[in-house]
């Protein structure tokens, strides 16, 4: 099904700010040489997963804001039977993941370098995703910036519409206040149901990053949430 006119024309607050970030020569080279093979251009039409990944009927998982791609690559390596579609806006992160794909010989990852709301509206068909991963999104900790947080009711409504029945949303954050907001927003969406009583233990499929391990050693908390579509 095509996205509706309302979805494609609705304005939204972006959860990121473009700024000049450091990018290594290796990341820059990956963007130049590897992007043509693994990066899918943004288009205003639904993506054909079978054509994009070169295989039929594999479940597709959307990873939103994959950062430097460490977690994405590890999960994709462990779950070879699943497709992983990563959405990220920053050049350094895209370049880093491209290098990981190349070094690890991965074939089940594709990347779209674009705003995720527009990708969801225009490129992801209704009820087509098997799962969504949102790991450590920008918490926008200052109160006046909370409106920029990704996990808001309209976004979750859009996300839920793209999940097939039984598909899941897995969020993780190390900011307690944001974790509480996530729990409230996800719980209030009637199309999905919590798989745990409140927060969940970290599932095996989400590897612990070095930054997360360092935070835990310092006494910082990490909160996981896993909701499934009814």
Strand-helix topology:
Elements: H1 5-9, H2 25-33, H3 35-38, H4 49-53, E1 60-64, H5 70-78, E2 83-87, H6 91-104, E3 109-112, H7 116-123, E4 129-135, H8 153-162, E5 163-173, H9 176-188, E6 192-194, H10 210-217, E7 223-229
Helix pairs in contact: 2-6, 5-6
Shape: globular
CATH class value: Alpha Beta
Q: Superfamily at the CATH H level?
A: Vaccinia Virus protein VP39
Largest sheet: 7 strands, mixed
Strand content: 15-25%
- Total of helices: 10
Mean pLDDT across every amino acid position: 92
Q: Give the CA-CA distance, first to last residue.
A: 20 Å
Number of domains: 1
Which structural class should the secondary elements be placed in?
Answer: alpha/beta
* CATH architecture title: 3-Layer(aba) Sandwich
Helix content: 25-40%
Which spans have pLDDT < 50 for at least 5 consecutive residues? 1-6
DSSP strand tally: 7
Radius of gyration: 17 Å
Topology as a string of helices (H) and strands (E): HHHHEHEHEHEHEHEHE
| Oligomeric composition of the shown chains | single chain
What order do the strands of the largest sheet run in, or round the barrel if closed? 3-2-1-4-5-7-6
